[in-house]
Write a sequence for this structure.
């Protein structure tokens, strides 16, 4: 949230407030979570890791929608903001914004930042999580290769 906030300040946009409010809310929730679990020392299992990943992506989707929903210049609903956020972090490229010429530069940067972070998430998923499921790089490569397979003759 800090780079888009600084960009909104630089361009003197009204989006400053949406990024600032989101930063405060996320910071407070993160601080509360850290404070409540700082004494806890639990050994996590693989199943816990998968649950953490699913919860992280769900919460990240909601949090990524906050500045878009709070921004008055976009005038989009909560559902559209969540769609835009999920579209960014999953790198699908779908958008509910028809005309981006009137969108503040800081919001455009934020959307680009979401796509970048989403792309990194896909790489982390491929490198860290898929091997735990028994799907390695060679299997992914073979599944994406064009041509005839042994099953087709």
């Amino acid at each position: 949230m800090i780079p888009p906030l600084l960009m909104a300040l630089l361009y003197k946009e009204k989006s400053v407030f949406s990024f600032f409010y989101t930063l405060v809310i996320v910071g407070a929730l993160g601080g509360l979570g850290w404070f409540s679990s700082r004494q806890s020392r639990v050994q996590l299992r693989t199943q816990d890791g998968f649950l953490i990943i699913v919860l992280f992506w769900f919460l990240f989707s909601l949090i990524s929608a906050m500045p878009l929903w709070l921004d008055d210049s976009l005038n989009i609903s909560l559902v559209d903001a969540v769609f835009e956020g999920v579209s960014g972090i999953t790198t699908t490229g779908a958008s509910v914004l028809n005309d981006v010429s009137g969108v503040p530069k800081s919001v455009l940067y934020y959307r680009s930042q979401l796509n970048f972070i989403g792309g990194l998430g896909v790489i982390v998923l491929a490198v860290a999580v898929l091997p735990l499921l028994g799907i390695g790089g060679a299997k992914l490569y073979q599944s994406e290769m064009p041509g005839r397979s042994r099953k087709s003759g």
